[in-house]
Amino acid sequence: MRKLICIVDDEDELVTNLKLELASLQPDWKILTFPDGLKAMQEIVKGKTDLVVTDIAMPDMDGYELFWRIKDYDENIPVIMMTGFGYDPNHVLVRAKVDGLKDVLYKPFDTEVLVELIKARLA
């Protein structure tokens, strides 16, 4: 069965490139991209999402709030967070890890590392 991966980030160029790279490395995955958490949640509640990759810093709904809403909706959907910040001034990662977050990628990252993380969480 084809896996549905949602990528959420307000950086258009990043999500476009990431979608193209993931599709070339894993053509059996369906990759959907969203500019914000609200649009992503509208897809997630349809019940077909297998995994979410989200940025932390986004307007309106940040990655932590999205993570919390996903876990509230279905705690079995794995979430991988991405961040461009080495320092976490609001302790978002600490709070998310306490709430069950397992994976964080620091931008820039190798797409193959993301592929391996996704495969591990989907296994």
Question: What would your notes on this structure say?
Answer:
- The protein is of the alpha/beta class and 123 residues long.
- It has a single domain, classed as 3-Layer(aba) Sandwich (Rossmann fold).
- The chain has five helices and five strands.
- It has a five-stranded parallel sheet with strand order 2-1-3-4-5, with helices on both faces.
- Helix 2 packs parallel to helix 3.
- The two termini are 13 Å apart.
Question: What proportion of the residues form beta strands (DSSP E)?
Answer: 15-25%
Q: At the third CATH level, what is the topology name? A: Rossmann fold
Helix content: 40-55%
Relevant CATH superfamily = Response regulator
CATH class, please?
Alpha Beta
In terms of quaternary structure, what is this?
Answer: single chain
What is the succession of H and E elements?
Answer: EHEHEHEHEH
How many angstroms does the end-to-end distance come to? Answer: 13 Å
CA-atom Rg in angstroms: 13 Å
* Overall average residue pLDDT: 90
Spatial strand arrangement across the major sheet:
2-1-3-4-5
CATH architecture: 3-Layer(aba) Sandwich
Q: Provide the number of structural domains.
A: 1
Uncertain regions spanning at least 5 consecutive residues: none
The secondary-structure class comes to: alpha/beta
The total of helices stands at: 5
Which word captures the global form? globular
